[in-house]
Protein: Arginine N-succinyltransferase
Amino acid sequence: MLVVRPAGPADIDALLDLAFLSGKGFTSLPEDRAVLTERLALSEQSFARDLPASEAWYTLMLEDTATGSIEGVASIKGGVGLHRPHYSFRVMTLAQYSSATGTRFDHQALVLVNECTGASEVGSLFLRPRKRQAGAGSLLARARYALIGANAGLFAPTIMAELRGWFDERDESPFWNGIAGKFFRLPFEDADRMITATDGQFILDLAPRHPIYLELCAPSAREAIGKVHRHGERALAMLEDEGFTRSGLIDIFDGGPTVTATRDHIRTIRNARSLPVQAGKVEAQANERLSLVANPGLAGFRAVLTPVRIGEGALILPEETLAVLGARPGDILTVS
Structure:
């Protein structure tokens, strides 16, 4: 059975392996053992409530209980942009009109903004290729919302997600090559690494302070604006299914879209029910939609996709599923 659980320092080798598999542009999973070790320590502190809620960064692992192998990772940041500004580009229309010539022009432009300050962020969703079927991605993605919904006071009213931008068949970012890279004068890989390995001062120092008129940019760069990476299309579809919508913001490096949702309106959170659990037989029906069941604590958080039976105000689960969730009869679990 696949289960989502909190990550800890012992997961470093698996997390580093996932980082190498994730490829170029997956900023939140740098191929850097020291950075990822620090990330796991931060996650352990976050789940132990040893940090202010806004500074917490929760990392979740997707584990196959039959083999003990780690098949995926996801994360939630309690708050973004509170110490270091969280920069994005907003696509804006700038209108110009001349009464002398009777001419009006509407120009599309990129403007540097930091509008996401204080929002909580879901991200770092990555699965091993062999697990990108049979609901594993849905389990990992929705487990984040189950954790947020069960501990709503630890998270902001607005939840955001940034998706990796478009890379061409040569694994190059047209947006970086045509727009962003002209300001930073660094290889994409170096700038990408510096986001997580430094305090980000170089962004503040070098990012453009004036609107960038898109008519002056290469067509390939313009076409990449707001376009999601081919490997992120399924992630975008799942976010939209939960109620996330495009915000008009894009990533300043690769042009990928930012989507947002109101925390309590996210579908998994909105539809969740809290019920006492009982052990019993549950028979899966053909074509039955599996339910997300979570043990809603923080340090003891667990989530699985499973057939369920609800009767007499209680959630019925097989004993083996209870064991995977770390729950006992009478415990309150959430189901959605």
About this structure: The chain has two domains: 77-90+112-271, 272-336. DSSP finds ten helices and 16 strands in the chain. The chain has a mean pLDDT of 91. The radius of gyration is 22 Å.
